[in-house]
Amino acid sequence: MVLLVYSEVNQDSNLNLFCFFCFFFVFRTLGRQSVCLAKPQYSVLYRHVAPMGSTAKEEMNKFWDKNSRLNRPMSPHITIYKWSVPMMMSITHRGTGVGLSGAISAFAVAALVLPGSYPYYLDLIHSLSIGPFLTGLAKFGIAFPVSYHTYNGIRHLGWDMGKGFKIPEVYRTGYTVIGLSVITSIALLMI
Amino acid sequence: MRKGKVKHQVPDLFVTFCFLSSALFYQSTLLVRPLAVPHKHQEQPYLLTARIHSSQNLQASSNSKAASLHWTAERMLSVLLLAMGPVAYFNPGPVIDYSLAAALTLHGHWGLGQVLTDYVHGDTKIKMANAALFLLSTITFTGLCYFNYNDVGICKAVALLWSK
User: Fold this and answer.
1) Looking at the predicted structure, is the pLDDT value of residue B70 above 70?
2) Alpha-carbon distance B106 to A66, whole Å?
3) For labelling, which of A148, B10, B76, B115 has a CA lying 20 to 30 Å from the CA of A50?
4) Which chain B residues are within 8 Å of A36, Cβ to Cβ?
5) Within its chain, how far is the Cα of B63 from the centroid?
């Protein structure tokens, strides 16, 4: 749901604006692009408007209740839509976030449950004589998700301030994030 | 503002989308991208905005800025967590250990909350999932604080891990 409608094909301003509003909707930035209808000269449009009085949450619940009740299959989206770099980066951001959160929670549970102390378990791992390659791999496995999630997080914060939405910018910042993540992870490996 | 007929489908749908999305986020005013205001007050059946329902006050059910404030809090916490990184590196100690425990747990809790909101549907399921998440986060924070108190602490733990 979060991933859709990145359009890389076009420079068409309508679709670019459409993408912008998708970001607007998803990331909830506060850019004003519309006209206030409260002014009297727009009163003619009110004739066609009826107040709804329900929230987005209620509307979404209604959608899901109805469609699951009717046992409707999910419409193909990620299986048919062409995957793009921004889409992949977005789901990777989510994946690393969930993964890191899970790892922290697992660590916390282990701290509560396991009898020994942390240095004890570290020495235990030491004594397994894993070898430099696998050790490096494990370090990379920790460093990369942290780096990627951090750098991409900064990119997200940029979007939250309304910056960097143009498609070329999205790609440029995206590749920067990937590059920085790899470099940082390798650098951290060396320490 | 153009006079006369609306010619294209795409701009209409686009306006529809703008209308909906802006209406959702500007609850106190009704916003629309100007498309075509009929100068004669006739029915124009192809004017798609006519079929959009919108509420001038979408917060009719609850006049709460909770969601908006939550969003802001999430971003502020992210910035705070970002700042904690260098502090933890240059000034390790119990203060930053406990701050990190709190910030990491909360950031993860809110992040996972968003994931649940995206993928879990149905009132009961949502409630159960959020309850489970709350439990997980509580256990996580407890575990991290326990580790900070009874063991080496987060900063030292990372340093030791990396030294191997």
Assistant:
1) yes
2) 34
3) B10
4) 29-31
5) 18
Residue A110 pLDDT > 80, yes or no?
A: yes
The pLDDT, as a whole number, for residue A55 is 81
The 10 Å Cβ neighbour count of residue B73 is 12
Mean local confidence (pLDDT), A128-149: 92
Report CB contact under 8 Å: B25, A36: no
d(CA B32, CA A45): 10
How many angstroms separate the CA atoms of A135 and A122, rounded?
Answer: 13
The answer, yes or no, to whether residue B50 has pLDDT greater than 70, is no
Give the burial class of B145: count Cβ atoms within 10 A of its Cβ; 0-12 exposed, 13-18 middle, 19 or more buried: middle
The tokens for A112 are 């509560």
Note the Cα A115 to chain centre separation in Å.
37
pTM for this structure?
0.69
Domains of chain A: 85-190 (1.20.1300.10)
Residue B106 has pLDDT above 50, yes or no: yes
ipTM of the complex: 0.71
Query: Which domains, and CATH codes, for chain B?
Result: 8-163 (1.20.1300.10)
- For residue B58, the distance in angstroms to the closest alpha carbon of chain A comes to 6
Instruction: Give the CB-side neighbour count of residue A50, counting CA atoms within 13 A.
Output: 2
Across A31-35, A82-86, B54-58, the highest mean pLDDT is recorded for A82-86
Bridge partner list, A13 = none
- Do B15 and B48 meet the contact criterion of CB atoms below 8 Å apart? yes
pLDDT at A182 over 80: yes
Cβ separation of B61 and A45 shorter than 8 Å? no
* Encoded tokens for A29: 């930035």
